[in-house]
Design a protein that fits this description.
The chain is α+β, with helices and mostly antiparallel strands. The protein folds into two domains: 99 residues, Translation Initiation Factor IF3 (2-Layer Sandwich); 95 residues, 2-Layer Sandwich (Alpha-Beta Plaits), CATH 3.30.70.2970. Helix content is 35%, strand content 34%. The protein has four helices and eight strands; from the N terminus they run αββαββαβαβββ. It has a five-stranded antiparallel β-sheet with strand order 3-4-2-5-7. The N terminus is likely disordered. Pfam families: SIMPL (PF04402). This is 26 kDa periplasmic immunogenic protein. Keywords: Signal. InterPro entries: 26kDa_periplasmic_antigen, SIMPL/DUF541.
Length: 253
C-alpha cells in the first residue's frame, strides 16, 4: 500500500495573523535592543547640564493710553461734551500719521458723582452730576513720533494720560538667538566638567527647553505730560531682556 501525504490548505486569515505576529515580534526585539543600547550608554556615564542665554533688545514701539474725562449736571451733557473732545483727540492722532488699526477705544464709562454730606449725617448723598470717561490706546510704531504725539494729544483735548508702555514688536529672532546662547552655555559647562573628570562629551541623549523670558513692558508714568507744551515730551526707551533656558544630557566617552 503506497503512502500518501495530505497537504492542508493554509487559510489566508491564519497566514495574515502569523505574519502580523512575526512583524510585531521583530519590532519588539528592535525596540528592546535600542533600549538596551541606551541603557548601556547611560551606564557608561552621562552628564546633564543647564544653560541660559540672554539677548538685550531695544524696544521698537510704544503703547500709550490717553483719556478724556468730562463732567456735567446730566449724563447726556457729559457724554456729548466727552464725545466731541475724544473725537478731536482721535483726529489729531490720525493726523500725526497713526493708522486706524493702531487706535483702539479703551475704558469708556459713565459714572454718577455724589454730593458730599457731613460726617455722621443720616442724609443719603444725592447725585450732583455725572462723569464720562473715554480713552484710546495707541500703538506708536515710529518712536521718533512719540514725544510729539504725547504733546499733541494733550493740546487736542486729552486731560488724562495713563502712561507709556515700551514693547518689542517681533521678539522671535532674538529669542532664537538666546536659545543658541543657552545651548552654547550648557555645552561649555558640560565640557569643563567632563574634562575635569577625564572624559569627553559624546552624543546628545536628550535636550529640552525649560523656560523663556520674554520682554516685559516698561511703564513710564505720565508725570509732567499734562502740562501742554509746544515742545515734544522727552522719552527714553531703555533696554529689555529676552532669555531662554535649556537642559541637555550628553553621553560621556
Amino acid at each position: 500500500m503506497s503512502g500518501s501525504i495530505t497537504v492542508l490548505p493554509i487559510r489566508p486569515l491564519a497566514l495574515a495573523r502569523k505574519i502580523a505576529f512575526a512583524s510585531a515580534l521583530g519590532v519588539a526585539l528592535i525596540t528592546a535592543n535600542t533600549a538596551l543600547a541606551q541603557d548601556a550608554q547611560t551606564l557608561a556615564g552621562s552628564i546633564t547640564m543647564e544653560g541660559r542665554g540672554t539677548v538685550a533688545v531695544t524696544p521698537d514701539m510704544a503703547v500709550i493710553t490717553t483719556n478724556v474725562v468730562s463732567t456735567a449736571k446730566t449724563a447726556a451733557e457729559a457724554l456729548s461734551e466727552n464725545s466731541a473732545s475724544i473725537s478731536k483727540v482721535i483726529d489729531a492722532i490720525k493726523g500725526a500719521g497713526i493708522e486706524a488699526k493702531d487706535i483702539q477705544t479703551r475704558g469708556f464709562g459713565i459714572y454718577p458723582r455724589y454730593e458730599r454730606v457731613a460726617s455722621g449725617s443720616d442724609q443719603q448723598p444725592g447725585i450732583a452730576g455725572y462723569e464720562v470717561r473715554n480713552g484710546v490706546e495707541v500703538n506708536v510704531r515710529d518712536l521718533a513720533k512719540l514725544g510729539g504725539l504725547l504733546t499733541l494729544v494733550v493740546e487736542s483735548g486729552a486731560n488724562s494720560v495713563d502712561g507709556i508702555r515700551f514693547e518689542v514688536s517681533d521678539p522671535a529672532d532674538k529669542l532664537d538667538e538666546a536659545r543658541k546662547k543657552a545651548v552654547d552655555a550648557a555645552r561649555h559647562k558640560a565640557e569643563i566638567f567632563a574634562s575635569a573628570a577625564g572624559a569627553e562629551l559624546g552624543t546628545i541623549i536628550s535636550i529640552s527647553e525649560t523656560g523663556t523670558q520674554m520682554p516685559q513692558p516698561l511703564m513710564m508714568r505720565a508725570g509732567s505730560m499734562m502740562a501742554a507744551s509746544a515742545e515734544a515730551v522727552p522719552v527714553e526707551t531703555g533696554e529689555q531682556t529676552i532669555g531662554a533656558n535649556v537642559t541637555i544630557r550628553w553621553a560621556l566617552k
